[in-house]
Amino acid sequence: MNFSEVFKQSNQLCKVSPDGKYLATCVQYRLVVRDVSSLQILQLYTCLDQISHMEWSSDSLFILCAMYKRGLVQVWSLEQPDWHCKIDEGSIGLVSSRWSPDGRHILNTTEFHLRITVWSLCTKAVSYIKYPKACQKGIDFSRDGCYLALAERRDCKDYVSIFVCDDWHLLRHFETETQDLAGLEWSPNGCVLAVWDSCLEYKVLLYSLDGRLLSTYSAYEWSLGVKSVSWSPSSQFLAIGSYDEKVRILNHITWKKIVQFDHPAAIDNTKATVYKEVERRPAVVSEELSLHNITMVSTLFNTQSKYEICSLPVQIPVVKPDPDRANPKIGVSVLAFSSDSRYLATKNDNMATAVWVWDMQKMSLEALLEHTSAVRCFLWDPRRPRLALCTGNSKLYLWSPGGCVSVQVPVEGGFQVQSLNWHCSGDSVILLGKEQLCLCYMDTDQEENS
Amino acid sequence: MGEWRATAASMEDPEISSISHVTMSPSRHNHVSLYSLPLSKSSYSVISAFCTEDNVPRCITYVNQELSSLGLSMCIEAGSPEGASLNAVPAINAMYELLQIHRQNMCTLEEMEEEQLKKLSTLEHMQTSNSRLKDQLELLMREKSGLHETERQLQLKIKTLQSCLKTEKEEVQKLQSIIASRASQYSHDAKRKEREASKLKERLSQLLVDRKEKKLAIDVLNCLGRSDGKRSLWRTAKLTASHESEMYKTLLGDYEANRKALLLENAELKKVLQQMKKEMMHILTPRQKSTSGASAGDSQQQVDSDEAKAGDTSREALDQSCELAREQLLNSIRQQWRKLRNHVEKLDQASQVQNQMESNKETIPLETHEDEMERMRQEVQQCREFIHAQQQLLRQQLNTSFDDETAALLNDCYTLEEKERLKEEWKLFEEQKRNFEKERNNFTEAAIRLGREKMAFEEDRAAWLKNQFLNITPFTDRRRCSSSDGQSALSIRSEPEIRMSSAKAKRSKSPTYTTFSTPKPSRSSTVPSTTELYRTLRILSDSSPISKLTLLHGSFTKTDQLGYHEKGGAAAPFRGEHKQSEGFAGSCGPAAVLLAECLAGSSAHWSVLQHQPFQAAESLLLLVNYTLH
């Protein structure tokens, strides 16, 4: 495993182009585009203000940089460095900006969710979509880029509009049976739309592309409900994480629950492997401390850790949430299927140090990774069943069915990994610190051999 | 009583001095004795004395009266008419009686006192126990009251808790209603606010539009082509229709794919079902064939055929895969499954029964047992030979391989191996040997018994000789009687099936031996009974002496076996007799037969004896020698 040198970045804005050739990073108001293989700067663009959002177009030709404070969006072309485009939303404000799947339109959400402005780069045409709903995930493009599902709120009722992305034609518009729609998500095959209610009510609705209600699922009533929803890449399963610390898996034929994954604090009867991160502090020599070499000291203070396989029973540290505060830190907030739909990784918020990996074939717990600090981010390799995690320290953690490993990022001055991004080939991971980034290259052949 | 006595005494106090009363209450005695004590201390005073010279007769009469009242018939008579003196004898007698009575009374008094003491002590005991029980009772009462109290308290608590519960429930209800009302209020407010917000948004957008902000603009250097390279189309009805059709196409495609996947899955499942069904049939049919013969399963067969039909129909129907066929298939599968389950259950039961049966009868058929024994014997023989050969070889090898050590080392391994094997064989051999030993013991026992019987026979012979001597002339009828007895006994034994079990037969044996086994004197004598006996013996021995003897040998060697030999019917009586002889020490059945055989064909017997190489054989030899003489 190799690591690149460290580059600067800000706002953790760093993205690899969809074709995997370029790496775009934002440093304050500058946009830097590098070649992924050589890491040499290809282009350097200067924006009008500090960039708050950056996004590649689907064809990897354009980069969108949004400056929400100024209500501005700037678009840069990789092929024609001279070409430029600036969209000003004016005093109406801007809270969100995104590409349409065709890479020729930009959807801007104005402040107070007054409307969504669709700007065409081809015709300079502008169109508005009114009444977008401000919610967890109110807008979703289908994976093939054909359709846009948008949650709307009119007269205190929830609606879903389905647009054809080609020409923004409204294909379907229907009211949903929700109290307060919280999110929607297309199935990967683009034929089913999952809609879920706000956390006050456990309700998941499944709509066909043509707006028919296929099924409704509700596990319980009264207490806080759905926290996260995720489709498996095969569209076969719909995983629903909820505030009762459980994940429920629905099948795609009857839309009934197949299995339910609990997240118990005490594990005493499982076939799963339990990995526990164990820290070892290296002995600090006082002479070296007196050198006042900050980098030295900081590297010295970097603790070494490794995974150890725990024997059962295992007790996972649980943080009891404050019942008086809103959005209690409890329940399954993150769900992620591996690219082959074989594994599901989950995180229960009141056991923030643990990541659970479930086997979707055996429908059982495959592994449990317990760390010394709270898990910030975990992402699956887009090609292999391999999970990368970070916990806000200088280590990268990797899990695969074969085993588990923690890798110290060999950067002087302490590189704290806040989040990470996989390269689309799965050969490298971009590690994002507070102000820095670094690439980690996987030795693919060795990994596969071992 | 004591008190009463005391009052009586006080009442009659004044009368004490005048002892004029003749008939007094019995309590008076006490007073007398009471008062006589202090009086006796003082000198004999006339006044206070009971009897003075003046009142002797009166005293006498009084005493008499008293005596009679006491139930003593004797009376004191005055010695003289004047009554001055007493007739000594009756007086003394009376006195003696009185003394006796007195002593008796004293005795009883003592007893009474003792008894009273006992009673007192028991009373005391009772009282203490009573008091203890009372204490206990009190304690229990206290406890009870305490428990009552606690119960009351608990009840009270329950009541309070119940009331608490009620209030809580009410509270919960109230809270629920509050929550509901709040929720409705909240939702109402939220809706109101949302409406306001939407109004505001509307207004804001309106205002923004009205202001016609210049800022709201797009600034593009040059317009881009579409990503697909096409030109954008006008919005027309055609276009919308095409969108619709596109959508339905995708949906259709999805459903198509779904259907295909389901079909595939269905086909797989069907295949599995078919296979399962086939296997089930396969399992079910041969079993029934096999069992139908044994347990007359006509109905079973019928069911079987029915099922086969159903299976066929279902198989045909499977391909059709319509509603009806599915039902049929399901039914047939269910039926078969049920049958299979029943069968398995039956099998379980049968296995249980079989287990029981096996535990009940662990006996092996006789023939196989015998065959096994024969085989084993042969094996043992072989083993013995083998061992012998090996030993010889070993010895040779040891002798030869002494000179070079390497060979010895090599051989050591072999020898070790060999030793192990030999040890095993030795063990086997030992076992066999033990068996033989047992048999031999049996045989020796039999021989000893024979010896004893021989002794008895000798004695008998002596007695018979004596008899012969004595009864040489007149008492023929008695002899005849005995001879007839012997005949009958022999005839009985000559029949193979009948075992000699009756005491009469046993008893009758001894004279028969005496008759036939003392050859010389009987031959010389011309008594018809003995000649008859001889004849019968000849007949007996002529019939099949050799076979019998060999069989006898067989029966002897196989004494440890309990099975009944069926090789030759003639063996049966021998065995029976042998057993009998074991049972009755006094009887001498086998010896007799043996002797009979010896007389009949000595050569055959010799052959037998050669097979019995041990002490018993020696004793037998002696016996035979003796009898041959």
From TrEMBL, chain A:
Gene3D superfamilies according to UniProt: YVTN repeat-like/Quinoprotein amine dehydrogenase (2.130.10.10)
Sections of the chain in a coiled coil: none
UniProt-listed Pfam families: WD40
SMART domains with a match to the protein in the record: WD40
Domain of life: Eukaryota
InterPro entries in alphabetical order: Centrosome-WD_assoc, Quino_amine_DH_bsu, WD40/YVTN_repeat-like_dom_sf, WD40_rpt
This protein's name: WD repeat-containing protein wrap73
From TrEMBL, chain B:
Annotated region (Disordered), positions in chain: 287-317, 480-529
Entry keyword Cytoplasm: yes
Biased composition (Polar residues): 287-303, 511-529
Major localisation: other
Location(s) in or outside the cell: Cell junction, Adherens junction; Cytoplasm, Cytoskeleton, Microtubule organizing center, Centrosome, Centriolar satellite
Coiled-coil stretches: 123-150, 183-210, 252-279, 340-386
The keyword Coiled coil belongs to this UniProt entry's keyword annotation: yes
Biased composition range(s): Basic and acidic residues: 306-317
Regions that span the bilayer: none
Membership in a protein family: Belongs to the ADIP family.
Classification via InterPro entries: Adhesion_Centrosome_assoc, Afadin/alpha-actinin-bd
Gene designation: SSX2IP
Protein name: Afadin- and alpha-actinin-binding protein
Keyword terms of this UniProt record: Cell adhesion, Cell junction, Coiled coil, Cytoplasm, Cytoskeleton
Organism domain of life: Eukaryota
